[in-house]
Inverse folding.
């Protein structure tokens, strides 16, 4: 299941954190750059207009 054998000196918290990081790293990442990124930025800008407390 895991690539590394359990370290006997590893605490349960350290093991949980290592497994959590491995699970996050295994998830597919959204595409970077191009049209997708521009659409995401535009969506973030348009939602900020309805929140006057977000502007200076």
């Amino acid at each position: 299941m895991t690539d590394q054998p359990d370290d006997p000196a590893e605490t349960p918290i350290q093991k949980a954190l290592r497994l959590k990081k491995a699970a996050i790293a295994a998830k597919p990442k959204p595409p970077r750059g191009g049209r997708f990124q521009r659409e995401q930025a535009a969506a973030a800008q348009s939602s900020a207009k309805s929140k006057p407390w977000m502007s200076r």
Q: What stands out?
A: The chain has a mean pLDDT of 79.
